[in-house]
Design brief:
heterodimer; A: 103 residues; mainly alpha; B: 612 residues; alpha/beta; 22 helices; 13% strand; globular
């Protein structure tokens, strides 16, 4: 559980750093931070899948998390960095906080 | 009773009308039907935090100019990257958007900062003034709003007036999100104008560096000419109305205009721009006036003749050697800031003609000030004719490595120089500001000066030079009577005492700065001591700045302390480091003031002697 909490803290920090950079139009730096964030988010999802397989009950709306990630990727696809930042800043960080609370 | 509330458009327009004359005129003249449409759609949508965001559509792509979650918080995060707590700083923003980013900049600015906003899209601007409250931006005295094709003139004129030695290193240039992608051509123009304004500021700095001490020498040496000279305003009263002014510059095309200039003599007032004088005289054309303003203009570029008595339009800072060799009437066009009080205290109009990049531009401004309604340019080529730069086959060495091209009058690009390009911009600004004056360019080749009418000189003479000028320059009394000159002499003698006071106070200030430095270095800072000394230092500063003689000292400081002035307002986050830096700089400036006093005093004494 500590491992998961640590991953969540790192992801919130990275999401904040990514959005700060993108709000300031420093998109290249922002994208490199985003790569780090995606890596951590993959670890979180893997962890959740593994825990679910083990039968651990974690009340998380996975579809909401996936929905947010899909929206973020769509924004990235059309290079709408402000929308991407908004999604990370307001939606992703919000759901990561919810997961952390429920652990 | 029906209460009618004003729409955003009416409210913004009312504020624009009250505060921004040129922009207001642009909006009134804006015709939506004739406008070039670059965007497919512009609309505003509600954001998640109940604010508004602008969305535009171009080439079937949608661009959100703001966050659709929280535009204000987005702008707050965006602004954090810029350091806005620098005194006297200039911030240029490409893109007004819905004003959200500009408002955040304003929130962080202090009263010494200035924000220049350049909006490349009239369509977005018209949408925004109809849907958003921009009062805070429109009514702010330290904000300039420029909309492309409405008041473009104000972009470069504002930046040129704001950028100087103290903020050239610290100025901030920023781009509103999405504007780079939406309007790349406008962005290019934005950077180009900034670059040109920086070049202009650098030229001014170099001028101060080069001429600072010489300007002081000239002004005090030329004091003797206060006795018998008169000003352009005294001359204005005697000038015949409805007579054109012909300004003859030294461009190669003058050679083709000689026979027509002979015909113009007596029917127009002819101004020779210094180095063309001999060429005109060699061709039996005696101009009505000759102009000289450069502080270090070599005599050979004025005239090789010994007795020039053609009335001379000059500045008090003009080269004293030319002033001394010239035998005729001297007409002061700029008294210098130092002597401004001398004129105003005696109830005279102080001639303070704007200093500008060349003697031709100065002559043109003088003509505008003297009320001419038709101003004709001859030899204002501002471009190379092969390798020839000036009339008489003169070939000057090219300046700078880069080749520079501008629009020619024949529709093709032609080769010019950086300084000539500056002159073109300067003429165009002057013309823009004086729509009531007809500016005619008579050359048949050379650089295009937008706003001029292109008419060949013989046709100008047949159309506009219809009356005889007659004798108008006989017995113009000097600006000052003998009694007034005595008063001036007394005032200037008082300045010698003031120089002595300034010297003493500067030494006192250096001692105080050293004491404050010592406390910081020894980590024994006594706040009340620092406060007391800072107060005294401010009093000394105020005293020095208040004296009219300070204007001469300022010229000296500017030419000798470029490195210090360049980063005078750049501070760190460490208060003690900043204090040490400030005291060190203050000591350097006060030392420079002491040097300036030593430099000025003997020259001023000699200048006063000559007023007898």
């Amino acid at each position: 559980m500590d491992y998961m909490k640590n991953l969540l803290n790192i992801s919130v920090k990275l999401a904040n750093e990514t959005t700060e950079l993108m709000y300031q139009q420093k998109n290249e730096l922002g994208l490199s931070k985003l790569n780090e964030l995606i890596d951590i988010l993959s670890q979180i999802i893997n962890y959740l899948i593994q825990e679910k397989a083990k039968g651990t009950i974690i009340v998380i709306d996975e579809s909401e998390l996936l929905n947010i990630i899909t929206n973020a990727l769509k924004a990235l696809e059309v290079k709408d960095m402000i929308l991407l930042s908004d999604i990370l800043k307001y939606d992703l960080i919000n759901i990561l906080a919810q997961i952390s609370e429920k652990l | 009773m029906v209460v009618k509330t004003m729409s955003y458009y009416d409210m913004n327009l009312q504020n624009i009308q009250q505060n921004r004359k040129l922009l207001y005129q642009g909006i009134i003249e804006y015709n939506k039907d004739n406008a070039v449409t670059l965007l497919e759609d512009i609309y505003s949508c509600s954001t998640k935090d109940a604010d508004q965001a602008v969305i535009v559509k171009k080439h079937e792509n949608e661009y959100r100019l703001n966050s659709i979650y929280s535009p204000v918080r987005e702008a707050q995060r965006w602004i954090e990257q810029y350091k806005l707590d620098i005194v006297d700083n200039v911030i240029a923003l490409y893109g007004l958007g819905n004003g959200c980013f500009a408002k955040e900049i304003i929130n962080k600015m202090d009263e010494s900062n200035h924000l220049v906003i350049y909006e490349p899209s009239i369509e977005i601007f018209m949408h925004v003034i109809s849907h958003y409250d921009l009062e805070e931006i429109i009514n702010h005295k330290n904000v300039t709003i420029v909309i492309e094709n409405m008041n473009d003139f104000e972009l470069h004129s504002t930046l040129r007036s704001l950028l100087r030695i103290t903020n050239l290193q610290t100025q901030i240039n920023c781009i509103h999100p999405c504007y780079g992608e939406l309007f790349p051509e406008g962005e290019l123009k934005f950077w180009k104008v900034i670059k040109e304004a920086c070049v202009f500021a650098r030229i001014n700095i170099n001028t101060s560096l080069r001429f600072g001490e010489r300007i002081i020498t000239n002004i005090v040496h030329n004091l003797s000419y206060l006795k018998d000279s008169y000003t352009i305003y005294d001359l204005k009263e005697k000038l015949p109305s409805d007579i054109p002014a012909i300004i003859v510059s030294a461009g190669p095309s003058v050679e083709k205009s000689i026979s027509d200039l002979k015909k113009a003599k007596g029917k127009a007032i002819i101004f020779a721009v210094d180095r063309i004088l001999d060429y005109l005289l060699d061709n039996d054309i005696v101009p009505d006036f000759v102009t000289t303003v450069d502080p270090m203009k070599p005599i050979k570029y004025f005239s090789n003749r010994e007795e020039i008595s053609i009335p001379l339009i000059c500045f008090m800072e003009s080269n004293y050697e030319i002033m001394d060799m010239h035998m005729g009437d001297k007409i002061i066009a700029n008294s210098s800031k130092y002597l401004a009080d001398v004129y105003t205290e005696l109830g005279k109009i102080c001639p303070r003609l704007l200093s500008s990049p060349s003697v031709a531009t100065v002559t043109c401004t003088a003509c505008v000030e003297m009320g001419f309604k038709t101003i004709v340019f001859v030899g204002q080529d501002l471009a190379y004719n092969g390798s020839v730069t000036h009339a008489g086959g003169v070939e000057e060495e090219p300046r700078g490595d880069n080749e520079l091209y501008v629009d020619g009058i024949n529709g093709k690009k032609i080769k010019t120089r950086y300084d000539w390009k500056e002159f073109i911009t300067w003429f165009e600004d002057l013309i823009f500001l004086h729509p009531d004056i007809k500016f005619i360019d008579t050359k048949t080749e050379g650089a295009l000066i937008k706003g001029t009418e292109l008419i060949e000189l013989d046709r100008v003479i047949n159309t506009y030079c219809l009356n005889e000028v007659g004798e108008f320059i006989i017995n113009i009394p000097p600006t000052f009577t003998e009694e007034e000159i005595k008063n001036i002499k007394n005032e200037l003698e008082n300045d010698l005492d003031k120089l002595d006071q300034i010297n003493k106070k500067s030494q006192e200030a250096i001692l105080m700065c050293n004491k404050m430095k010592e406390q910081i270095i020894k980590h024994k800072v006594n706040d009340s001591f620092i406060k007391d000394k800072s107060k005294k230092l401010k009093k000394i500063n105020d005293y020095i700045l208040k004296q009219s003689i300070y204007w001469l000292i300022d010229d000296y400081i500017s030419s000798n302390n470029i490195e210090i002035l360049g980063d005078v307002y750049i501070f760190t986050d460490n208060i003690n480091d900043d204090r040490l830096k400030t005291y060190d700089k203050s000591i350097s400036i006060f030392n420079s003031i002491i040097e300036a006093v030593k430099f000025i005093e003997p020259k001023l004494k000699a200048g006063i002697q000559k007023l007898n």
